[in-house]
């Protein structure tokens, strides 16, 4: 069992659908009140799928952004582990299963907003 904060379950059984999980993540992140653009690159055997979220306070937009404040790259299978609450995004990054580029402070606040309430971002956090 990981000591890192995990997301609430974003997956609706019986299917794992990328767009619905990203939309649910966006709804969770919008609660943070942050304003930023997030560019996801989901890596598959066939290539990559790009998806963007634009957070404007409590609003969310879907759209392609050239210069996102946060960029995340990961395999689709890793995304579904995170979306199901089985893997922490922090742990995925530490283990090299997810690439990250951008504003780390904003990313930390967003992970906290989407995580289970009361959990620490990582085990050594005060």
Task: Provide a compact summary of the structure.
This protein is of the alpha+beta class.
Overall description:
The chain has 126 residues and is α+β, with helices and mostly antiparallel strands. It has one domain (18-114): Nonspecific Lipid-transfer Protein, Chain A. 30% of the residues lie in helices and 28% in strands. The protein contains 4 helices and 5 strands, in the order H-E-E-E-E-H-H-E-H. Strands 3-2-1-4-5 form a 5-stranded mixed β-sheet. A hairpin with a 2-residue loop joins strand 1 and strand 2. It starts with 17 loop residues before the first helix and ends in a 12-residue tail after the last helix. The model has no long low-confidence stretch (mean pLDDT 82).
Helix and strand topology:
Blueprint: H1 18-30, E1 35-44, E2 47-56, E3 59-62, E4 70-75, H2 76-83, H3 89-94, E5 98-102, H4 104-114
Parallel strand pairs: 1-4
Antiparallel strand pairs: 1-2, 2-3, 4-5
List keywords for this structure.
5 strands, Nonspecific Lipid-transfer Protein, Chain A, alpha+beta, 126 residues
The tally of strands reads 5
Main sheet summary:
5 strands, mixed
CATH hierarchy: architecture = 2-Layer Sandwich
Distance between the termini: 20 Å
Taking all Cα atoms into account, the compactness measure Rg is 14 Å
Please report the first level of CATH classification, the CATH class: Alpha Beta
Secondary-structure element sequence?
A: HEEEEHHEH
Q: Tell me the CATH topology.
A: Nonspecific Lipid-transfer Protein, Chain A
Look at the structure and give the mean pLDDT: 82
Strand content: 25-35%
Given as residue ranges, the uncertain stretches (5+ residues, pLDDT < 50) are none
Percentage of residues in helical conformation: 25-40%
Based on Cα principal axes, name the global outline: globular
Discrete helix count: 4
Secondary structure category = alpha+beta
